[in-house]
Amino acid sequence: MTAKLSEMEQIKARSRFLRGTIAEGLADPLTGAISDDDSKLLKFHGSYQQDDRDLRDERRRQKLEPAYSFMIRARLPGGVVTPAQWLAFDALAREHANGTLRITTRQTFQWHGVIKRELKPTIAAIHRALATTIAACGDVVRTVVCTPNPVESAAHAAAYAWAAKLSEHLAPRTRAYHEIWLDGEKLVGGDEEPLYGPTYLPRKFKIGLAIPPLNDIDVFAQDLGLIAVVEQGELRGFDVAVGGGMGATHGDAGTYPRLASVIGFVAPERLVAVAEAVIGIQRDWGNRSERKHARLKYTLDHRGLDTFVAELERRLGFALEPARPYRFEHNGDRYGWTEGQDGRWHLTLHIESGRLADAGGRRALTGLRELARVHRGDFRLTCNQNVIVANVEPAGRARIDAIVAAHGLDGYRRGSAIRRHALACVALPTCGLAMAESERYLPALLPQLEALLERHGLADAPILLRLSGCPNGCSRPYLGEIALVGRGPGRYDLRLGADFRGQRLNQIYRENIDEATILATLDPLFARYAAERTESEGFGDFLYRVGELVAPARRTIPPEVCA
Ligand code: SRM
Ligand code: SF4
After folding, report:
1. DSSP-based three-state secondary structure for 452
2. In which pathway does it act (predicted)?
């Protein structure tokens, strides 16, 4: 018997290629919201309806509707932003949003707090800045992320060009976006979505391209991960990895984080065909009844990797070549100045939780705006929520350094190693799924961890810390050497043991604990690490070597994952 399609599938099917009644909803002045169905379709256009969760109870008491506003996410392939775009995005943050720009863990910008009547002007302004928000969210291929220092060598530039090409090629074709947001003419006749069809994909689909030795995009967390193979300075092609994903639900063993499986090598000229075929299989085989089991990782585990690869090669009409060897050193960012092969320089700045704001004595938002006013190169957002001031002529470095220092953006020089490598997802007050604080908790947690590490002589230990307000895993917490995953207000699962190369998932060490217990649990582990670690041994690797953690049993796939 065929299972009933999920509600979302039915909404997509009757949406007329993502139109729904969004345009009508935007025009309704009686509410700050749009209808439930439209808010689900809105995601495909790059926006989420949210409400300020700090104000929920008070507004309910006052019998007011929730304080609705919208989050907007741009689609910026490879995280590349020109200075002109930066200035336009900064102005939108100040004039239409909550005065901040948020760099996400997929190297793009989010604006929070945009009220309904500002939504259309803001999206139109993003379009005028030669960017888009289409398919930044929704059941489609999202922005393709890429190791963000592509001009380091010719091979880096070639790899980035493939990421940009894929991102463009795999974007939806519907004219709905132009009609709703850009006052484009109404389409006469039918829309076409040659790749997706009228109901798009069963679930979100993420592609990332890593250029070894940096795994700064966490390539194994992608539905489709591409590892650039560079030999004698030339881009030869890509190792292909499928079925990565982080999201899980507390207490539901049928959901889990999974690292992508490497299935072979492909030459550049065949890359688009391979990507289309992988996406096509997921479109046809993915679970459209139960969204919790609809990501490619579950399709793969249900059908079996061998069956998937056989189907892929059948659709392609050729076999993938055997995967080529690759080696990753780490999945963090390299702070400070680095020189590219062409003699230009790149400065990686640390932005705590990716939040660019003028607050707490720091003027990060204004500092970056001042940089954009003088900078002649471009900017690169990173998947670790940071920004690279890229392509600086040697003579321009001093001026950049001065602006950085004047606005307190030089934290990358001073911050502890754990601070520089920490990631935290947005969580409260805007995220509707948050169970605990994340971005707002990081500034309180870090000094306590720093004090603990200092006490054990570990102030310089580069430990990878990741915080998420719920198990959906937006900061890719399952790849943190230490991770906190929200359970409820002030309570987290403590997970330990990833490897700082993005190649090993961590595991739960203590469940549902508060801050005092987190610190008390880490204290003896830090003491042991300080006393017994070998030279340059990572914290996660150490915990396994000394037996504090044992390798988890091989996962068996529970039956409820079946499509
Ligand atoms: Fe995420 C949902 C924020 C990267 C897995 N994510 C959400 C929503 C939209 C909440 C919602 O559905 O109502 C969050 C909006 C919060 C807000 O107020 O802004 C949200 N996710 C984010 C961002 C902004 C976190 C950040 O601090 O940077 C990241 C935006 C990325 C982007 O630019 O596209 C973000 N989300 C991720 C990642 C990391 C990655 O892709 O590398 C993951 C894990 C990888 C993966 O997809 O498996 C991730 N987000 C999820 C999930 C779980 C999906 C699943 O398969 O179970 C959800 C919930 C869902 O889709 O139902 C989710
Ligand atoms: Fe929200 Fe959870 Fe994602 Fe954090 S991990 S942004 S709390 S969905």
Report:
1. helix
2. Sulfur metabolism; hydrogen sulfide biosynthesis; hydrogen sulfide from sulfite (NADPH route): step 1/1
Beta strands in 7-67 (DSSP E): 47-51
Backbone torsion region of residue 544, taken as left when φ is above 0, otherwise alpha when ψ lies between -120 and 50, otherwise beta? alpha
Query: pTM of the predicted model, to two decimals?
Result: 0.97
Q: Cβ–Cβ contacts within 10 Å for residue 196, how many?
A: 24
Check 297, 425, 487, 495 and give the catalytic one.
Answer: 425
**Active site (annotated) includes residue 474:** yes
Please report which ligand is nearest the Cα atom of 485. 2
CA 154 to mean position of chain CA atoms: 26
Residues 6+ apart with CB under 8 A from 515: 445, 448, 490
- Catalytic site includes residue 73: yes
d(CA 85, CA 440): 28
Residue 376: Cβ-neighbour burial (10 angstroms; 0-12, 13-18, 19+): exposed
Is residue 179 within 8 Å of residue 191, measured between CB atoms?
no
Residues 6+ apart with CB under 8 A from 464: 331, 332, 421, 479, 480, 481, 482, 498, 500, 538, 539, 540
Structural domains in the chain, CATH included, are 419-546 (3.30.413.10)
Ligand 2 mean position, distance from CA 383 (Å): 16
Residues with CB under 6 A from ligand 1: 48, 50, 71, 73, 104-106, 108, 110, 142, 204, 206, 218, 221, 245-247, 295, 354, 425-426, 430-433, 472-476
Query: Catalytic residue at 425?
Result: yes
Phi, psi of 455 (to 5 degrees): -60, -30
A 10 A CB-CB count for 374 gives: 12
Q: Phi and psi dihedrals of 184, rounded to 5?
A: -70, 155
Query: If we measure between CA atoms, which residue out of 206, 42, 24 comes closest to residue 134?
Result: 42
Contact 484, 435 (CB under 8 A): no
Written as one letter, the residue type at 254 is G
- Summarize the annotated binding site for [4Fe-4S] cluster as residue ranges: 425, 431, 470, 474
Taking only the tens of pLDDT, the chain with its 563 residues reads 578 999 999 999 999 999 999 999 999 999 999 999 999 999 999 999 999 999 999 999 999 999 999 999 999 999 999 999 999 999 999 999 999 999 999 999 999 999 999 999 999 999 999 999 999 999 999 999 999 976 678 899 999 999 999 999 999 999 999 999 998 777 666 788 999 999 999 999 999 999 999 999 999 999 999 999 999 999 999 999 999 999 999 999 999 999 999 999 999 999 999 999 999 999 999 999 999 999 999 999 999 999 999 999 999 999 999 999 999 999 999 999 999 888 999 999 999 999 999 998 889 999 999 999 999 999 999 999 999 999 999 999 999 999 999 999 999 998 899 999 999 999 999 999 999 999 999 999 999 999 999 999 999 999 999 999 999 999 999 999 999 999 999 999 999 999 999 999 999 999 999 999 999 999 999 999 999 999 999 999 999 999 999 987 554 444 333 33
